[in-house]
Write a structure and sequence with these properties.
This protein is of the alpha/beta class. It has two domains: 64 residues, Chemotaxis receptor methyltransferase CheR, N-terminal domain (Chemotaxis Receptor Methyltransferase Cher, domain 1); 192 residues, Rossmann fold. Helix content is 43%, strand content 17%. It is built from twelve helices and nine strands. A seven-stranded mixed sheet has the order 5-2-1-6-7-9-8. Strands 3-4 form a two-stranded antiparallel ribbon. Helix 3 packs across helix 4 and helix 5 crosses helix 6. The radius of gyration is 21 Å and the shape is globular.
Length: 284
């Protein structure tokens, strides 16, 4: 029996301890995310891809270029972001949105009033599009209000992909077949494109959660989904991000975090709201 050898890994040049520290410090300053020695292979693979793309001779010549060129900031950050998502992810929060959060928010509001929902990081768009589809399917008052859905991400390449709205089988695997047929065009090869009515209902924009001015420019929202992002931050960055999220909510607005995240361990400015389907946080 012939045993096939595993594919060889690229022979990336190793970063020195000082080079690794300079690069991870730069990423922390720009994104708030922590990358350490335990992620060395991940870091070296991505930075060496950028070194090759730019034609630099090595890290020593690449790093000054990185620091000086905003376009390279963007390219490197795009290389380091993790875009792991699919439609109807953490469906229990979507159930809480339609059964509890929106009914609470719309008490006393008039038909036609604006409701703003923000999904960050939106990655390639599955999560904000899921919100739009879920509300059409599960909230009887969806047509009674003016609902604005915004998706944002620090990864500009992901934003472009989200705007295109083309998805493979893995992204669609959690959706019921009838939902796929109603909200996606017929299959082209192994992908399907979301219908224009849904694609045009979500506005995508690049935003960095740790940049206060960028967050302020977005205005205030009634609901923010910020799932599985704060786990990549250290305590100082989490606290700053919590402040930005708090300021981005209207009074009485709701914040939905990932299932492994807890605002109670980060900031005492939010009130916990327990619903049958999910625990979320509210700006008093």
């Amino acid at each position: 029996m012939n045993v096939r050898s595993p594919p060889a890994q690229p022979d990336w040049p190793a970063l020195s301890g000082d080079e690794l520290r300079r690069l991870t410090d730069f990423l922390y300053q720009k994104t708030g995310m922590i990358f350490g020695e335990n992620k060395r292979y991940y870091i070296e693979r991505r930075v060496n891809q950028r070194i090759a793309e730019t034609g630099a001779s090595g890290f020593r010549s690449y790093f000054p270029h990185l620091v000086a060129e905003p376009a390279e900031h963007e390219a490197l950050i795009n290389a380091f972001t993790i875009n792991e998502t699919y439609f109807y992810r953490e469906e229990h929060q979507l159930a809480a949105l339609s059964r509890d959060i929106l009914p609470s928010l719309t008490q006393g509001r008039k038909p036609g009033d604006l409701i703003r929902i923000w999904s960050m990081p939106c990655s390639s768009g599955e999560e904000p599009y899921s919100i739009a589809i879920w509300l059409l399917e599960n909230w009887p008052l969806v047509d009674a209000f003016h609902i604005e859905i915004v998706g944002s991400d620090i990864d500009t390449a992901a934003i472009l992909q989200a705007g295109a709205g083309i998805y493979g089988e893995r992204s669609l695997s959690r959706l019921p077949a009838d939902i796929v047929d109603r909200y996606f065009e017929p299959k082209q090869g192994h992908t399907r494109k979301i219908i224009d009515d849904i694609r045009e209902s979500v506005h995508f924009v690049p935003v960095n959660l740790v940049e206060k001015d960028a967050m302020i420019r977005m205005g205030r929202f009634d609901v923010i989904f910020c799932r599985n992002l704060l786990i990549y931050f250290d305590d100082a960055s989490r606290l700053a991000a919590a402040g930005h999220l708090f300021d981005s909510l209207n009074p009485g607005g709701y914040l939905c975090l990932g299932h492994t995240e807890s605002m109670a361990r980060i900031s005492d400015r939010f009130a916990m709201a327990r619903f049958d389907d999910a625990i979320v946080y509210r700006r008093p």
